[in-house]
Write a structure and sequence with these properties.
Layout: E1 2-7, E2 13-18, H1 24-30, E3 50-53, H2 58-61, H3 66-73, E4 82-84, E5 97-101
Parallel strand pairs: 1-5
Antiparallel strand pairs: 1-2, 3-4, 3-5
């Protein structure tokens, strides 16, 4: 079990527990968080689960894949710490990961 800190656009922070090898998106959905649209259901074919990874966690979450990068390029809100929540898998090393939900495009 790993802890995930989620900051919403209204400034509310929620701490969620999730299983290792589960995506950040799945953890949020399982907890009832509906702030991410996730129109494709987590298949990396849209950018509606866009989050910002806290800067201190960037190296731990790993690099953005080419497909993920292409989707993020379509966002007006892309930053250097942008990721798709469906593409970040929780690991023991990510226990305590902090993400902020990006504005919708």
């Amino acid at each position: 079990m790993a802890k995930l800190h989620v900051l919403t656009s209204d400034g509310t922070e929620t701490i969620l527990n999730g299983d290792v090898d589960t995506s950040v998106l799945e953890i949020m959905q399982d907890a009832g968080n509906s702030d991410l649209m996730a129109l494709c259901g987590g298949c990396c074919s849209c950018a509606t689960c866009h989050v910002y990874v806290d800067e201190q966690w960037l190296s731990a979450v790993g690099a953005v894949s080419e497909d993920e990068g292409d989707l993020l390029d379509s966002s007006d809100h892309k930053k250097n710490n942008s990721r798709l929540a469906c593409q970040v898998k929780m690991t023991d090393a990510l226990d305590g990961l902090r993400v902020m939900i990006a504005p919708e495009d």
